[in-house]
Amino acid sequence: QVKPVETGGGSVQAGGSLRLSCTGSSLCNSMGWFRQAPGKEREGVAAFAHDYDSPYYADSVKGRFTISRDSAKSTVYLQMSSLKPEDTAKYYCAVPRICVGDWVWRRPEHNDWGEGTQVTVSS
Predict the structure, then answer these.
(1) Using one digit for the tens of pLDDT, what is the confidence trace for 80-116?
(2) SS3 110
(3) CA-to-CA distance for 50 and 47, rounded, in angstroms?
């Protein structure tokens, strides 16, 4: 399976916006975003799960982040607005190796990962 490739990270001041893109090959049109801050575990940010109509969002980003996709381009986007310093992390694109429900979110050990893209939010 081809590893997903993320683009679009960078540095921004608090309150600003960034858009991340990920191009990957998903067998079931399920892709998502996770992030990992220094000293913390990787956590889910937003994802499209297999056969679920609505995307998943972490509570900490609801109302500020929006995940979208262009299936024809095998690309998923993460529009991040009202960014906060606590959003600072390396953001990873996830593509599930197995198309089962919401495993992209709940069983991340079965995901393929991109190299990640750094997002830094300064106060």
Answers:
(1) 999 999 999 999 999 999 888 899 999 999 999 999 9
(2) helix
(3) 10
Residue 50 confidence (pLDDT)? 87
Question: Average pLDDT in the 29-55 region?
Answer: 93
Q: Which among 7, 3, 16 has a CA at the least distance from the CA of 78?
A: 7
- Give the count of beta carbons closer than 10 Å to the beta carbon of residue 22: 25
* Angle at the Cα of 19 from the Cα atoms of 120 and 37, rounded to 5 degrees: 30
**In sequence order, what are the beta bridge partners of 76?**
22, 69
Instruction: Residue 9: count other Cβ atoms within 10 Å of its Cβ.
Output: 17
User: In this predicted structure, what is the pLDDT of residue 14?
Assistant: 98
